[in-house]
Design a protein that fits this description.
This protein is mostly beta strands. About 0% of the residues lie in helices and about 55% in strands. Strands 2, 4, 5, 6, 9, 10 and 11 form a seven-stranded mixed beta sheet that branches. β5 and β6 (about 60) form a beta hairpin.
Length: about 130
Amino acid sequence: QVQLVESGGGLVQAGGSLGLSCAASGLTFSSYAMAWFRQAPGKEREFAAAISWSGGSTKYADSVKGRFTISRDNAKNTVYLKVNSLKPEDTAVYYCAVDRRPYRTGSFYTEEYDYWGQGTQVTVSS
């Protein structure tokens, strides 16, 4: 079965950086777009970034554009999210997800993703 395991979250001061990782297994990783979503307490899960199956294109939410960078290593079945210039409003549980169909560029919408990791907590103090 498909498994996604996120890591790299933590507590950081505003302005700091973190590197999140998501290791995937049980699928042909290189065939699927991947995405990072986040969910703050009391809020809906929201899109942060996506990367196409080939890694050739990326998408970002306006709120993270210029501060977050998504990348993937298909040889390691891993997708990454580098988060820089963190703000208190970035505090959330960060989830990685697999596109429900292969060979796409990634979507902003949660319903386009079939599998989700357990999440990793990012807390930004002011």
